[in-house]
Write a structure and sequence with these properties.
Elements (H helix, E strand, L loop, with lengths): L3 H12 L12 H17 L11 H9 L9 H14 L1 H11 L1 H5 L6 H14 L3 H6 L12 E5 L3 H17 L2 H11 L15 H8 L5 H25 L3 E5 L6 H12 L1
Parallel strand pairs: 1-2
């Protein structure tokens, strides 16, 4: 389950910011600004910030900085959404492959949010998104960072854990949360970034009568597996990563040893 909504609620209460609506977009740039504000406050109090999560793209943006990309353009995005509704996102993925093969190669044909952004940047600037990523980054994190990661090991083991975790989410009231969102925000639609989160889109389809309950669960588990696969790919490319065997009876001892060595 992507905890976007719960993170935003917690962050808003902690930082005193206005609560984000699931109707709003929350970009990597906004996340970097918000996280930096909190981290600076923590450091000012003589503490060490601890970041926990699995969204590698956002962590990479925070740690390494962002390229100077143009802001979002609602008119262009609306036009791309209209074309996608008519042609399908795989067709737009093929279009992106012609103008920016490097970016297209790392995006799935149905990754509508990132495909839209890549095509939007092209229309706004006439330059491929990959050219911006190749440029020198700005606002890199001015701290030394210790990267700890749980190594999932065998694929069958992580798949079993994902299935168990998804069912525990259901037992904890995930579908009720989704019903509440649909009630409180009737303008929600499946193309919003908040509804593209793992679990939410699949719950939407079930509550709208587009699939059975068993299909919903199966699709939610499959989407989570795909997310885990992308996270593992991200981890492989991350430098200076301290890997902890998550199936070990004791991951705390090596984690504390790594932290102690880093602080020394």
């Amino acid at each position: 389950m992507d905890l976007t909504h719960k993170f935003i609620r917690t962050f808003s209460r902690t930082a005193g910011h206005k609560l984000r609506s699931p109707l709003e977009r929350y970009s990597a740039a906004e996340f970097v600004a918000d996280a930096r504000s909190l981290m600076d406050d923590i450091v000012a109090r003589g503490r060490i910030p601890l970041l926990v999560g699995g969204t590698m793209l956002y962590f990479k943006a925070l740690a390494e900085g962002l390229s100077d990309l143009p802001p979002a353009n609602p008119a262009i995005r609306a036009g791309l959404d209209a074309r996608a509704a008519m042609l399908g996102w795989p067709a737009l993925h093929q279009e992106l492959a012609r103008i920016d093969p490097q970016t297209a190669a790392r995006l799935a044909p149905h990754d509508s949010q990132r495909l839209q952004r890549a095509l939007e940047v092209w229309q706004l600037t006439g330059q491929p998104l990959s050219s911006f990523h190749a440029d020198e980054k700005t606002t890199a994190l001015p701290f030394n960072v210790l990267r700890l990661a749980l190594d999932t090991g065998e694929r069958a083991w992580i798949h079993e854990r994902i299935a168990r975790r998804f069912r525990l989410m259901l037992d904890a009231g995930f579908v009720d949360e989704m019903r509440t969102l649909l009630h409180d925000y009737p303008e929600l639609h499946p193309d919003l970034p908040s509804m593209r989160c793992v679990g939410y889109r699949q719950a939407w389809e079930w509550l709208r009568g587009e699939c059975s309950e068993d299909e919903f669960i199966e699709r939610g588990i499959a989407a989570t597996r795909q997310l885990a696969k992308r996270q593992i790919t991200w981890m492989r490319s991350m430098p200076d990563l301290v890997r902890l065997e998550c199936r070990s009876a004791d991951t705390l001892t090596p984690a504390l040893a790594a932290c102690s060595a880093f602080l020394d």
